[in-house]
Design brief:
Helices cover 71% and strands 0% of the residues. It is mostly helical and 267 residues long.
Length: 267
Amino acid sequence: MLLALFVLFVFGRGLLDLWTDVLWYRSVGFEQVLWTRLGAQLGLFVVGGVVALAALLGNLWLAGRLAVPPADGSGGVVRGWINRLNEAATDRPGGGSWRGGLGGTSARGLDFDLPDGVRIGRLVLIGFAILVVLAAAAAISGAWETILLWQNRVPFSPSGAPVTDPIFHRDIGFFLFELPFLRLVQSFLVGLLVATLLLVVARYFLSAMAEGLDLTSGVRLHVGVLAGLVLLAIAWGYQLDKLELAYSGRGVGIGVSYTDANAQFFA
């Protein structure tokens, strides 16, 4: 009973608005239009969330497999940095110890245990991953119109003959239906790859602080590939920027100007 009242209190306004829209669309004979939109938004939310979740969990799982402590027990490069910080903190007047870099007995007498810090770090990673998944799902769901237009794209040929732009020689329908979709995919990939890279680096850092980390070729390759994919996605965005100049209004007129064709394209 309390759960039902809570759901009604939180979602009651939205459910009432939805029912009002259903009655309105039904009265004018376009109820299917509303359900098509809602179904597309729900389906895209699930797809975006699943894709983001698979990318994040897959890379975190791989980072967990690759994160191994050094065989000689030295703790690795990060542990060496932490030890040097400990020495510097101990040598200063009234200094304490970092105790692994996450605390220790400081000059103010505060004490933080390393395992607790690592545990908190893992909880922060989980919380950040959940936020990334929800944000990715919401972004894809909010772009339902762009995706449906791309899915139902047609050539722009009102007179029967193809209508193309004079610069890129592409059908006008490409700029109406496909280019916005490609921009959506590019933006989604950049955001997801950057978030994945941050989570993976944080995961390796936590392993280095907890048990030490051996910076093997697998660890370097994992981080390097993710960083390379981020750069490739950004580079793809520059190519889409060039295509979007076909309807740019920054020059004297609309479209590709002389400066765009002779300088901006090369840049």
